[in-house]
Amino acid sequence: MKFLELLNHIGLIAAHRGARCLAPENTLIALKKSVGRCDFIEIDVQFSRDGVAVVMHDDTLQRTTNVAKIDSFVSKKPYRVCDFTIDELRELDYGSWFYKDENHKEPLLTLCDALEFIKEKSLLLNIEIKDISAVFSDEEVVDTVVKEIKKSDASESILLSSFRHEYLKIIKEKVPNILTAALVEGKHSDSLLEYLRELKVNGYNLNNESVDKQTVEMLREAGFFVSVYTVNDSARAKELFSMGVNCIFSDSLNKNLKVDSL
After folding, report:
1. Which site in 34, 159, 236, 253 is 20 to 30 Å from 43, CA atoms measured?
2. Number of domains in the chain
3. Where are the alpha helices (DSSP H) in the chain?
């Protein structure tokens, strides 16, 4: 299936950082456990110091790795992802924090690994590019991510999103066929439809607290794919889908979130 085929559907579930209720977020096991529980998977991408795209939500490593337990890395506090080379990142354990058991170690997941997995399993993937503009140029970020997608021949299976909308502009200039979505939190932009058309995005991903029926209807009538994050309550999911929201990002992946009648 192509991601394009989802754009007019309602009642979709995206696995937020993979099946993070069942496995350590943004790891290969979290992606594997998402299969059959969602319509597509969402991951986050940042860069190592040497410019390799890695799958990680936080800009620091302490919450989801064992970095603080490794004496040789003490000098790297506050453990920013961008301060570690890819080889150093591969030394870390990305699983034990979740299981509270050092027998459940998980390796680093790179963007290349994630793309290889979804290609092999014929899955769809939303890649959120984190705002790393303080360290890497916008062109470098976009070029690296796009290169990985092209190398994997997975362009039709991908939706790229970001809070840094400059990335989205460059993506559409370089590869117009890749789907993009503007991520927002809080207040909507003035002249929202005009702004989104200038970005040439296909979707609008907004936080749960910012949703209202009028905005959803306006966006949907204008042809935009509307997604809401993060929703783990079935009653709220039903309410959003009844407004016309296409998709919710969820941690729980509870099948009761599905509203089959819509």
Report:
1. 236
2. 1
3. 28-34, 86-89, 96-99, 111-121, 138-152, 165-174, 192-199, 213-221, 234-243
